[in-house]
Design brief:
Blueprint (H helix, E strand, L loop, with lengths): L15 E4 L6 E4 L5 H14 L6 E4 L2 E4 L3 E6 L9 H11 L6 E7 L6 E4 L12 E7 L2 E7 L14 E5 L3 E5 L3 H4 E5 L9 E7 L6
Antiparallel strand pairs: 1-2, 2-11, 3-4, 5-6, 6-13, 7-12, 8-11, 8-13, 9-10, 9-12
The structure holds 2-oxoglutaric acid and fe (ii) ion.
Fe (ii) ion binds next to loops.
């Protein structure tokens, strides 16, 4: 586990560099926006986003996806959601031509997302993923993938990041090849938590 630096105040322009790579790696900014804005974003999205429950095939069973989701194109953002304002504040820190936003709602500690990397064919090469966390804080695990050339090698431990209300996480495109991430279930968390994930989708061919 990698320790988070102790001296992180309100907004500190220099992030915690969680992982380094040639494309900016994985960086974490706690409290990147004013608490008043962050509280409003959470309440408005909880009430008004088009939350959907999905089911998916897992081997021979159909299972509930253990969280609610919503997705929007940046050129078609609904007026009653605060996403355009959020995007402007995100882009002030992570300048990238984000064109898609995906929301996840973890209703309580029983909701989760399994370890995965974001699908590379749905991401423009070289562009980061920007993830805003709202509501209850939940732990993200970031784990180096196995080296296919050395499958017997000991596996490095997962890095744990406590994703706090109003934090911003940048993950490089390159980090999706080297690491996987997930939000495990957690006992004793009764409050909802949301992530708002801005991505750059490749232009349709
Ligand atoms: O909710 C999170 O922090 C992670 C979400 C995620 O990994 C995804 O939407 O691909
Ligand atoms: Fe992901």
């Amino acid at each position: 586990m990698s320790a988070r630096p102790a001296a992180m105040g309100l907004f500190d322009a220099s992030p915690w560099q969680v992982i380094d790579d040639a494309e900016g790696g994985v960086r974490y900014w706690p409290g990147f926006a004013a608490l008043r804005d962050v509280d409003q974003w959470f309440a408005a999205l909880l009430a008004n986003a088009g939350w959907e429950a999905h089911r998916r095939q897992m081997y021979d069973r159909v299972v509930d996806v253990p969280r609610l989701t919503a997705t929007y194109r940046v050129d078609q953002l609904p007026d009653d959601l605060p996403l355009a304002g959020m995007l402007a504040q995100v882009q002030a820190i992570i300048p990238a031509p984000f064109n898609s936003v995906g929301l996840n709602l973890y209703r309580d500690g029983r909701d989760s997302v399994a370890m995965h990397n974001d699908k590379l064919h749905h991401l423009a090469p070289g562009q980061p993923i920007a993830l805003v966390s709202l509501g209850a804080s939940r732990r993200m695990l970031l784990r180096p993938k196995r080296d296919p050339r050395d499958p017997g090698a000991a596996r490095a431990n997962a890095i744990r990041i406590e994703l706090e209300h109003g934090s911003l996480l940048a993950m490089s495109h390159a980090s999706q090849r080297t690491h996987e991430h997930g939000i495990p279930k957690t006992a004793g968390c009764a409050e909802p938590r949301m992530s708002v994930v801005f991505r750059v989708r490749p232009a349709p061919r």
